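#onboarding

Welcome to the new folks! Below is a worked example of what a typical request in this channel looks like: someone posts a single protein sequence, and someone else replies with the predicted structure as tokens. Don't worry about understanding the tokens yet, we'll cover that in week two.

Example request:
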Amino acid sequence: MNNNDQRNTGWALLLGLVAGGYVGYYLNSEKGRDLRRQVANNLSDYETTVRQTVNEQSSKLANNLSSTYENVKGKANDTLETVKTKANSTLGTVKNKANSTMETFQERFNKGVNQAEMEIDVTADALKTSTASTSSPSTSSPSKSTTSTNGSSSNRSTNNRKNS
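Example response:
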């Protein structure tokens, strides 16, 4: 450090001591005490204003949040009701289609059972006829029974064509 810098530092220190002493003396004087009271009162007023503003803004924010919550809750309930309605409608449609399909299946099944019963009756009649036309059951030849089986088979084909 150079000598000139040391002198400047010394002057700055001396000036700071003098200024600090003056401020201290002033603040301890009657005018200084009045100034401190004014500053304290102004800070107290400012503190009160800040507290009121914070409380007002907090209340507004709480009201806004509450209102927003209620709006969101209402919309969520509306959406839930819409989903329930659509789900119930879809369920009803599915039930109706399932019932319709079941009825169709039942009708077709019954029709098939009726056709099978008719074919059985035709075959039984054909067997009775072929048995009655033979003179003795012990002398029947395998070719005649085959013919009667084929005859019932052809009757079955004819019946299928009629029912179709």
